[in-house]
Amino acid sequence: MYIRDFPRKVNQTGRKLLYPFAQSLLMYLKAQGLPKDIWIKLYDYDFEGSHDIHLVHSVSGEHVNPAEGHGINSLAKAIQKLQLQVPADSVLELGYLVLLWWEC
Hints:
Layout: H1 20-31, H2 36-39, H3 72-82
């Protein structure tokens, strides 16, 4: 688990583009079907310090379009951006977290 506190933007004038981490988080929140009044709040925070953080997420269902960036596509994108290279005689160990929720 990784916890990071991103500060609120000081200057709220205009909606600027989000940094890649926040873009991935936004994609994930939208894919989960969360209402706009929740995910729109991402624009209120400063993600400038997230250049070396990558969100690897998965959304239930079948996703074969690499542009969607879910699951294995999300992992591949993070590995490429971080320029991770594993020596041939090594094993890449990955940890993962599964979040489940449902409405009753």
